[in-house]
Predict the structure.
Amino acid sequence: MHYKNLWLAAGVTYVCFILVASLTNIPEIELGKIIHRDKIIHFMLYFILVGWFVQLYKNKGTRALILVSAITLGMVIEYLQGMTSYRSFDWYDGVANSLGACCAFFLASTSFDSILNKADRRLYHFFND
């Protein structure tokens, strides 16, 4: 991978986005009448989070650490939300976070694992051809 540091920086930026979006008092976005839409968002945020980092690190132990860290992050954020006056602790949000993280972790053993690598190669050829 030619631009691993770039992809890592993007991943860290994404973690910061999750932290800010989860812990600040921002108005709720109306997404229509989708049932459990907030749980879908939680699932997707953590699916992307783990999916991103498992593509950067191929070692199984490191990938397991990424999974555990993401699940822990999701639960700590839920706990911190419960300490605010404008958010609340929700076990189901933590479950949705964890399910998203686990799904991405298990997909890492499929071709899902190579999305960033393909993007990296294309970016490299774009700038070097």
Notes: The longest helix spans residues 60-82. DSSP finds five helices and no strands in the chain. The helical segments are 4-23, 37-56, 60-82, 91-107, 115-128. The chain has a mean pLDDT of 91.
